[in-house]
Design goal:
This protein is mostly helical and about 500 residues long. The protein has 26 helices and 4 strands. The longest helix is centred in the first third of the chain and has 23 residues. The two termini are about 50 Å apart.
Length: about 500
């Protein structure tokens, strides 16, 4: 007979240990202090946080990374990217300097901001370490974000941060600097002899600063690059990226252990999918437009402001007088998000389905429309007032269209010839834009292709609101929801920018 050990902990149940045995145990977590707002994320966080914070902090950081990547794809300069990202950082991932508080880095507010930044980085590191492509993209956008923050940091706090790092560099002594003065002058552009004497110099392995070597801004000798202090950022960035690369590889090897926790795996899976285009959900307050005639009879006129996915559904509906199930669902939820009432929506679909009788419509379609609005169905559906409009991420990743179906995202699900024909039918005839869309879709940057078309169609209006300052930069960030596309287009074209400036992305839905 097998002897039972009743002190053994069942692995399928929560471990309940006698409090007397653990009250003097060494804590398994470490409370981090954050003396600097810059961070190279060498030490992972180990303290406990709420699952809600785990999700929301990662989502907020993902918004920033998506915008940084979008700026890169649009070939924006460093200054333009910094101007675009600055207000978004204040909104989603704020980091105030030590000088902003009389208590300095000990201020609880600053510690909370830096804790969120620290945790959100490592949460996304878990989400984006599973494949080589995700690791490479994560390194690129995190490096770009670090560069922006490093450049925006004030000189004193930046130097304090650099001094705290244990980077692999060697200071150049005065004697060696005198011997190499002429070589340093010849190799370093726009540098005078007085600058050599007044600046600190560092020796690093030349492969750690490839951008300086490539642009011939440093002197290289014996495998070492001689870097002036003004180019310090390149050394720090190289150290940050090297540390991040090795950290991602270690995380990838540890990922299989996370499968044991069924709370985290779905969240991380959705976050990695959202890296293609961040998911977004519109709030009820964003469902109305001032002066917009949203009714069954105005949909045809308003369709000029629709994104290509919804415009394709509208054109197919008018051509065939019918849409299949997922097309109806996608389009109905979009119209619901515009503010179309359930009664008007029923009228719209009945008028659109011209080839069927009233009895057929009432039996086969009326209930589904009411269910979408939450008028019928289970208690959960009614309490939630139906379903939310599909975001770009949901359209891209769920229910790909089959034969005879018209839903989905044309930039992803159409062939390039069919996509070009659809764009031309929608009035996009600029060859540079069409070439840009082709390039974006080839590289799977579908939301960038959609934003490219939007910016071309509203070029004059966007320039006008930027010049008169009626819209903030956050109101012109990357569009990741079809309803945001419509509302932004309508307000720009209708000249209502000064009356409503509430165009924004609300909480992401993962």
């Amino acid at each position: 007979m097998i002897r039972q050990d009743f002190n053994r902990i069942d692995p399928n149940r929560r471990a309940t240990i006698d409090y007397k045995k653990k009250q003097f145990a060494t804590p398994t977590f470490k409370q981090h202090d954050y003396p600097h707002r810059l961070n190279i994320y060498q030490v992972p966080p180990t303290a406990e946080i709420r699952l809600e914070d785990f999700e929301q902090w990662a989502i907020d950081r993902l918004r920033i990374l998506a915008e940084v990547e979008a700026c890169t794809f649009r070939n924006k300069t460093s200054a333009e990217t910094a101007d675009h990202i600055k207000p978004l950082l204040k909104k989603w991932l704020r980091l105030d300097p030590n000088s902003s508080s009389a208590q300095g880095c000990a201020d609880p507010r600053l510690q909370d901001q830096r804790r969120k930044d620290h945790y959100s980085h490592f949460i996304l590191r878990l989400a984006f370490s599973s494949t080589e492509d995700l690791r490479r993209r994560f390194m690129r956008v995190e490096g770009a974000l670090f560069r922006l923050r490093f450049q925006a940091e004030n000189a004193r706090e930046r130097q304090d941060f650099v001094a705290s790092l244990s980077l692999d560099w060697e200071a150049v002594g005065e004697q060696e600097k005198r011997i190499l003065t002429q070589d340093l002058l010849n190799a370093t552009p726009a540098l005078k002899k007085a600058d050599i004497d007044g600046n600190s110099w560092f020796k690093v392995d030349f492969e750690t600063v490839p951008e300086l070597v490539e642009s011939r801004r440093v002197f290289v000798k014996g495998g070492k690059a001689y870097v002036p202090s003004k180019e310090q950022m390149s050394i720090v960035l190289a150290g940050f990226q090297g540390q991040l690369e090795s950290g991602l590889q270690l995380t990838a090897r540890a990922l299989p252990r996370l499968d044991e926790d069924d709370r985290l795996s779905p969240i991380l899976d959705h976050l990695s999918k959202n890296f293609a285009t961040p998911d977004s959900r519109l709030a009820d307050s964003d469902a109305t437009l001032p002066g917009a005639p949203i009714s069954a009879s105005s949909i045809d006129q308003l369709s000029q402001h629709f994104p290509l996915c919804m415009r394709n559904l509208h054109m197919t509906l008018r051509r065939n007088n019918h849409l299949k199930h997922f097309g109806r669902l996608q389009y109905t939820l979009f119209l619901k998000g515009l503010g179309l009432t359930m009664e008007d929506c029923l009228i719209f679909w009945r008028q659109s389905f011209k080839l069927i009788t009233d009895d057929t419509f009432n039996k086969e379609y009326r209930y589904n429309i009411r269910h979408t609005y939450g008028d019928v169905g289970g208690d959960a559906v009614r309490r939630g007032r139906g379903y939310s409009p599909f975001s770009c991420q949901k359209i891209l990743t769920e229910h790909p269209p089959g034969s005879g179906e018209s839903h989905g995202c044309p930039y992803r699900h159409f062939s390039i010839d069919n996509l070009t024909s659809l764009l031309q039918a929608a009035g996009v005839n600029d060859q540079d834009v069409l070439r840009g869309v082709r390039d974006d879709t080839d590289k799977k940057r579908y939301h960038i292709a959609c934003n490219r078309v939007f910016e071309w169609a509203h070029e004059n209006e966007i320039r006008q609101v930027k010049e008169n300052g009626s819209w903030k930069a956050t109101e012109l960030d990357t569009i990741v929801h079809p309803n945001t596309y419509f509302k932004r287009s309508y307000l720009l074209k209708a000249g209502l920018a000064g009356e409503s400036r509430q165009i924004h992305h609300d909480h992401m839905d993962i």
